UniProtKB/TrEMBL annotation:
Residues 286-473 form the ABC transmembrane type-1 domain. Residues 1-18 form the signal peptide. Belongs to the binding-protein-dependent transport system permease family. HisMQ subfamily. SMART domains: PBPb. NCBIfam families: HEQRo_perm_3TM. SUPFAM superfamilies: MetI-like, Periplasmic binding protein-like II. This is ABC transporter substrate-binding protein/permease. The chain crosses the membrane at residues 288-309, 340-361, 455-476. The lineage of its organism: Bacteria, Bacillati, Bacillota, Bacilli, Lactobacillales. CDD domains: TM_PBP2. PANTHER family: GLUTAMINE TRANSPORT SYSTEM PERMEASE PROTEIN GLNP, MEMBRANE COMPONENT OF AMINO ACID ABC TRANSPORTER. It is found in: Cell membrane.
Length: 484
């Protein structure tokens, strides 16, 4: 079943060259589908001011920025409600390809490579390309030519990354998923310059006196380098309707007005950049982290116990299933499993991001718990089962009343370590937009332009959570040792 879903996922996201554009559009009902639902879903990565970022309004977090304002106008023209779905930048196009969102909008450049996988609207804004450098290096780096053979940072999978590789001689390009991480790398001199769109570069310079902007000097085709909306292949009717809105928006000069509005929001964010001011963000992150961890622990233990019992079953089928499951899960990264559950299985069943994260983490934990329980069962002396058999106990009763209680005492430290690890490993769900602690950390970094302090706060929070959990587990371990 898993293999079938994997193949389905892979084939679904590949561009179809066997169907002509005319045929695809003839069968296209993308606009009708959006209007029938009464909403249009926008996938975005809200860590890219002034295009999209988060602010706290009336005690609630809200995604704002030029892209959001443009999309609101498009939704108004279509007569539907706008729903914003947040996730990492590397997943916004996948969200469109797999039907998780109708539109991806995150300062996306419609490059020829991306056009092979998704449809694009007309360009709605062209801000140009620039570099961010440290102000102390202003005399050293003055143009693109001066960056030759230097370390250039850029967001992975972006136009800026490809431009740095192809147009700066001898450049060593370092890619990261988040611009906030790249800015931190720049300020700590891990990279010499950061390739970024001009509006975002200007936003960072206005809010960080240690940074300076220089023009890129690239000679580019504006049709490939401006910002456009990405839609699923074959969404011709929806693209046409969106293009009508974009034409009106540009004619009225609204993008520049929206940028000015974004600037006002950014000033609100940077008016008070103390971590205490953003305590609600961290509190929400803690809430989701603990929720995911607690539920995943319960289902992980249940699944692990079932798999362990299957491993000891005389049925060759159950035995094989248990081994195959554990080997497969332990042989693939948790991040890939999270993305597969959300995007891959989401093709068949449209699961929410939070539920997808819980399922993926639970399934992953179950495989490791199975190995812990299996080791615990093996550690119980065989004489115990022989004695139980001599007393006339059935095998199920022997396992339930004799073996498992003794095994639990033996595996409790290892099981506790798995619980503690789960609290930390659950942070991976942030890539699909679950607002856990890591997700909130990146939002605070983007909003405040402070690279280190939010990381430090999150590190302390994780330590406090795991320290308390460790003390609780140690308490129960002591109770077990003294129990007769």
């Amino acid at each position: 079943m898993t293999l079938c879903l994997s193949l389905l996922f892979l084939f679904t996201i590949q561009p179809s060259h066997s169907i002509t554009t005319t045929t695809a559009y003839a069968a296209d009902n993308s606009l009708q589908r959006v209007k029938a639902r009464g909403k249009i879903v926008m996938a975005t990565s809200p860590d890219y001011p002034p295009y999209e970022f988060q602010v706290s309004k009336n005690g609630k977090s809200e995604v704002v920025g030029m892209d959001v304002d443009i999309m609101k106008q498009v939704a108004k023209d279509l007569g539907v409600k706008l729903v914003v779905k947040s996730m990492s930048f590397s997943n916004v196009l996948v969200a469109v390809e797999t039907g998780k969102a109708d539109v991806a909008m995150s300062g996306i450049n419609p490059t020829p490579e991306r056009r092979q996988s998704v449809d694009f609207s007309e360009i709605y804004y062209n801000g140009g390309q620039s570099f961010l450098i440290n102000k102390t290096d202003a005399g050293k780096y003055t143009s693109k030519a001066s960056l030759a053979h230097k370390i250039i940072g850029a967001q992975t999978g972006t136009l800026q990354y490809n431009l740095a590789k192809s147009k700066i001689p001898g450049a060593q390009v370092k890619g990261m998923d988040k611009n906030t991480d790249l800015v931190l790398a720049l300020k700590t001199h891990k990279i010499d310059a950061l390739g970024i769109e001009t509006p975002s570069a200007e936003a960072y310079v206005k809010n960080d006196p240690d940074l300076k902007m220089i023009k890129s000097g690239y000679s580019l085709n504006k049709n490939d380098t401006g910002s456009a909306m990405a839609l699923k292949k074959g969404s011709g009717t929806l693209v046409a309707a969106i293009n009508k809105s974009i034409t009106k928006i540009k004619a009225k000069g609204l993008p520049n007005q929206y940028l000015a509005q974004a600037g006002k929001y950014m000033k609100v964010n940077t008016h008070n950049t103390s971590m205490f001011h953003y305590w609600t963000y961290f509190a929400k992150g803690i809430e989701y982290t603990l929720l995911i961890s607690a539920i995943s622990v319960i289902f992980g233990v249940l699944l692990g116990t079932i798999l362990a019992l299957m491993r000891f079953s005389k049925s060759k089928i159950f035995h094989a299933i248990s081994i195959a499951y554990v080997e497969f899960v332990r042989g693939t990264p948790l991040m890939v499993q999270v993305m597969f559950v959300y995007f891959g299985i989401g093709i068949v069943v449209n699961l929410p991001a939070l539920l997808s994260g819980i399922i993926a983490v639970s399934l992953n934990s179950g495989a490791y718990v199975e190995e812990i329980i299996r080791g615990g069962i093996n550690s119980v002396d065989k004489g115990q089962t022989e004695a139980s058999a001599s007393l006339g106990l059935a095998k199920t009763d022997t396992m339930r009343f004799v073996v498992l209680p003794q095994a639990l005492k033996n595996i409790w430290p290892a099981l506790g370590n798995e619980f503690v690890s789960l609290v930390k490993e659950s942070s991976i769900v942030s890539i699909i937009g679950v607002t856990d602690l890591i997700y909130q950390l990146n939002i605070v970094r983007a909003d405040t332009y402070r690279g280190v302090m939010p990381v430090f706060v999150a590190m302390i929070i994780y330590f406090v959570m795991t320290f308390i959990l460790t003390r609780v587990l140690n308490y129960f371990e002591g109770r077990m040792k003294h129990a007769k």
